[in-house]
Amino acid sequence: MAIITLSRGTFAGCSAVAALLAKRLGYPSLSREEAAAEVTRDYGISAKELKKYLDGKPSFLQQVPGKRLAYVKCVTAVMLSHMTDGNLIYHGHVGHLLFSDIAEVLRVRVIADMKYRIRALMENENLSRDEAIAYIEQVDTDRRRWVRLLYGVEWTDPTQYDLILNVGSLGEENICETIAYMAGQKDSQSTAESEKRLRDFSLSCKVWAALAKTPETRGVGIQVSADDGAVTIDGTASSVKAEEMIPQIVESVDGVSSVKCAVGVGRDWYW
């Protein structure tokens, strides 16, 4: 079992590395953009709505959890649905944080200097040099804000990663081989306990995603845990209707064997 998350900056060469790595290892590969498109398709959340809560400069109202956390869980559920035998390559900018409780994840940051990124953006998007610089700086600033808001850490903090590799100096092929070797080390560390932990985590995300699919329960302030199919939900809902719907929705999720629901109704339903 080896989940590889490739954290990237805008036009830093990470997508090419992911493609090479998927071919080298035979793992399924999923990009952030592909995951977002599937959330829009499968959960009835518009691309505009998803982008508002997960991208760009966060407004004051978006700085409380509610829908934002639900949408994050939807993205995570989509990612997990693409795993094959516990293997996955995901390339986006915070994949390593979505799997923060899974020790077997190989967390890699692929970087490139500004010269490399500016040239790539100019060539791919037909922008001037000044436009490319402004775009990269704005996207990087917004992403740093979101990571601080969602996870309370710095996106560029090297302690968040197992490997930091510079595509500009090492090249895509060398980076691919390095990551493939390290993925083998992670895979050898898999145990029955770690596989159970991943299954429980996956089920909890599926439950979150099912609740986010229904407008009435999309913004509930809950915590979900799973243990071999037994799901426990704590927290508060914004209405009696949402409170009543939660256990019904959870019971319908594939893999759930029992539900313990301790959700009440409260005005302060963000935690």
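Next protein, fold it too.
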Amino acid sequence: MKYTEFIREIKGPVFSIQDVKLLGLNIYSRQLSLWANEGHIVKLKNGVYLISERKDIVSKEHIAFVLYQPSYISLEWALSHYGIIPEIVHNVTAITSKVTRTFENELGAFIYRNIKNTLFFGYKKIDDGKGVYLLAEPEKALLDYLYLNLSKINNKDDIYELRFNRFSIDEVIDERKLYRYAKIFGSKKLDQMLAFVMEK
């Protein structure tokens, strides 16, 4: 099958080997490798590809959602999105209830940190016109970040070094929701570090 015929059959920007099989297309892995080498498609991970000419119509967040499920965008990527940290974040960071994984491809790194099932909550479904994904609420993104970095955060100075944007925290964080969510984590150290973050 020619590439031009193939992309007429594939409607979205991202496809998997399973999608190809469901469409009944006779495409072999060798052919996909050839198209990847020619720059027609991008290998995102084993069995998942992006059509190069459709890169601009898909978001990195949607790709992150497709690559590894269940997952939701959180940690540095979400904190930057909400303006809570000043840095521009290049690698998509997400939470999963599965094992910790990182996928690297030409779009960057997609990093998934494991959290136990009882803490897999506090996200909302987003459709930004470039795909669907799950995004942590600002309160949950902050808690996820603190919780997964507690081994490196021990005092006020460590919190100060994180350079959280106080104005953005006041703007986007619902304190009642934040403390309600924090209670579910059941960590005294997290509560203590959170008190430092929220100190006026």
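About the second fold: The radius of gyration is 20 Å.
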